[in-house]
């Protein structure tokens, strides 16, 4: 053991030295002086582990250059990860290199704090800070996803339930096996976001503890650079160099939670203040007595479908031809625009906004209104006692208690429509079949009262592949005929590989839904038919674009001229296709305008 005669003492640092957590046989006193410098330096650079110098004979001792490279690379990756989580924007439009070439003030403040803390407190603070950064990064990614699909950020109070809906949609689109794979990947991503930033901050904090003087100087330099950049307004590609984005996002989330809780109380009062709440049935909808009124929502039928250069030609041709076909059958139409409360999805928010006359743009508002007795268009028909009210809901696959709130005498969900054919991705059945089932189950039967119907058409639901096609009404049957049509259709994965393909197939789906509805009125309508149809929201941004409006077309079709005469002052465009200059109303304005136009009067019955 003569070669263990002299020893080299590692340099002493401030609070944390290179002897932290050294195993007994690897302390500096037991290291030979002539041990290769790389072995000691490599371990000294392995700052994130606090394990000290590797015992002689370890891989770091045998491969000092590789050990240094691994240590430096790991430290660089840790720094990059922390920087990315600090600067990650929550808007997909801001995902540019310039966003990550900034100085985050939170990183400077965090470094200063870690330099001041004792060892145990420093480690705890590092782990908590890293986990917090990971959680914020997760929320930023959810924001990005929600903006892409729904045109709004993720609400931390009530949007968690929508993740389950997203999983159900994936299963309908890519199958159970693919969905399980996506879910596993999502779970691994969440775990990585919570664990890796914590380890990264811990590693960097240990590095700063070992090199306290250099870390303090670097922190002061960066802090000075931040202050100067902030004072001078220095920018890189439009992004300020002095960043405080993490603090701003945290504050925005706190403000969002407070606003959500406040909004719940405010909305409850708004929903209770309904001018038609006490109006008796005898004073409601007197101008439509004896008419069969059909309210139809066409999934994702937005302004983009009729005005986008790629999709509009085909859709506009269907609307123009449909206007002529209906006119030949004795019908007239007027159309306009409504601004939906939702975008890209959450169709029930658009439905409830249109029917209730309240702006319902989040799940909490939806729950509040459907738990009460606010008057909707459909429940107004029921209150009169003059109509039988039914719902055709092919997208509903389980119990739907909201049917009572909407005043529907009977709801036909996907289980009651008698469909024996295949699903078309998310859509449980083709629109033409839904309308044929409506004719068979309700409209075509004799009734002692006229019908008021709410029909949801789902064939134009994302992902728009495979698509059904229009067939003869006498061939619809129980839906088995669609087996061959579904098999011949396109696969969602193939369609979604290119944006133009997605947009093209979306346009075709809208054409199919419109053709089905127009053909139904043409074949089964009568002199008492009144049809109100509209889109519930615009399609996702991949189809409608990053800056699309929330406008959707709406049309009123009637055989009786007096029905349209009552809305002549609305300024709507003749025909099924609203003009560019047609009025644009918020969707929640429609209920009161419709009730007023057709003879409803607010307030209680006059006293006698």
TrEMBL record:
Q: Which residues cross the membrane?
A: 69-88, 100-117, 124-147, 184-205, 217-238
Record keywords, A-Z: Membrane, Transmembrane, Transmembrane helix
Keyword Kinase present in the record's keywords: the answer is no
Segments of this protein annotated with the region Disordered: 1-62
Q: Which SUPFAM superfamilies match?
A: Alkaline phosphatase-like (SSF53649)
According to UniProt, the name of this protein is: Sulfatase
Q: Which organism is it from?
A: Streptomyces decoyicus
């Amino acid at each position: 053991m003569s070669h263990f005669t002299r020893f080299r003492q590692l340099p002493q640092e401030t609070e944390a030295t290179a002897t932290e957590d050294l195993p007994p046989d690897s302390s500096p006193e037991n290291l030979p002086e002539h041990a290769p410098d790389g072995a000691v330096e490599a371990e000294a650079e392995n700052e994130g582990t606090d394990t000290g110098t590797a015992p002689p004979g370890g891989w770091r001792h045998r491969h000092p250059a590789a050990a240094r490279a691994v240590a430096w690379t790991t430290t660089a990756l840790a720094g990059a990860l922390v920087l990315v989580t600090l600067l990650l924007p929550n808007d997909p439009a801001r995902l540019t290199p310039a966003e990550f070439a900034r100085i985050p003030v939170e990183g400077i403040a965090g470094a200063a704090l870690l330099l001041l803390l004792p060892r145990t407190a420093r480690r705890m603070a590092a782990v908590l800070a890293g986990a917090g950064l990971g959680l914020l990064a997760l929320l930023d990614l959810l924001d990005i996803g929600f903006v892409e699909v729904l045109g709004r950020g993720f609400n931390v109070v009530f949007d968690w339930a929508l993740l389950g809906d997203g999983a159900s949609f994936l299963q309908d689109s890519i199958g159970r096996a693919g969905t399980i794979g996506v879910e596993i990947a999502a779970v691994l991503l969440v775990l990585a976001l919570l664990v890796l930033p914590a380890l990264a901050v811990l590693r960097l904090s240990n590095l700063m503890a070992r090199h306290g003087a250099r870390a303090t100087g670097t922190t002061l330099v960066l802090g000075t650079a931040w202050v100067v950049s902030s004072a001078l307004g220095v920018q890189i590609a439009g992004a300020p160099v002095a960043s405080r984005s993490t603090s701003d996002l945290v504050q925005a989330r706190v403000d969002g939670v407070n606003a959500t809780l406040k909004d719940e109380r405010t909305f409850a009062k708004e929903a209770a203040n309904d001018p038609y709440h006490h109006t008796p049935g005898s004073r409601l909808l007197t101008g439509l007595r004896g008419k069969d009124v059909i309210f139809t929502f066409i999934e994702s039928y937005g302004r983009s479908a009729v005005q986008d250069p790629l999709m509009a030609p085909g859709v506009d041709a269907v609307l123009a031809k449909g206007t002529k076909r209906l006119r030949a059958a004795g019908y007239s139409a007027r159309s306009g625009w409504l601004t939906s409360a939702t975008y890209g999805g959450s169709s029930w928010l658009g439905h409830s906004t249109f029917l209730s006359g309240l702006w319902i743009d989040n799940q909490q508002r939806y729950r509040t209104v459907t738990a009460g007795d606010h008057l909707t268009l459909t429940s107004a028909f029921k209150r009169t006692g003059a109509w039988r009210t039914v719902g055709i809901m092919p997208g509903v696959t389980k119990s739907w208690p909201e049917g009572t709130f909407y005043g529907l005498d009977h709801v036909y969900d996907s289980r009651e429509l008698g469909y024996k054919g295949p699903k078309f991705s998310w859509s449980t059945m083709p629109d033409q079949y839904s309308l044929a089932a409506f004719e068979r189950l309700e409209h075509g039967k004799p009734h002692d009262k006229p019908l008021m119907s709410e029909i949801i058409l789902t064939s134009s639901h994302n992902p728009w592949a495979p698509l059904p096609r229009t067939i003869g009404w006498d061939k619809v049957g129980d839906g088995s005929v669609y087996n061959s049509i579904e098999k011949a259709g396109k696969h969602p994965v193939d369609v979604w590989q290119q944006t133009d393909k997605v947009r093209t197939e979306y346009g075709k789906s809208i054409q199919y839904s419109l053709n089905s509805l127009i053909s139904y009125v043409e074949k089964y309508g009568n002199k008492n038919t009144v049809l109100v149809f509209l889109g519930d929201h615009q399609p996702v941004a991949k189809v409608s674009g990053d800056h699309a409006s929330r406008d959707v077309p709406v049309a009123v079709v009637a055989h009786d001229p007096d029905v349209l005469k009552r809305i002549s002052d609305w300024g709507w465009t003749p025909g099924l296709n609203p003009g560019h200059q047609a009025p644009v109303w918020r969707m929640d304005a429609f209920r009161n305008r419709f009730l007023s136009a057709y003879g409803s009067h607010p307030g209680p019955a006059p006293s006698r």
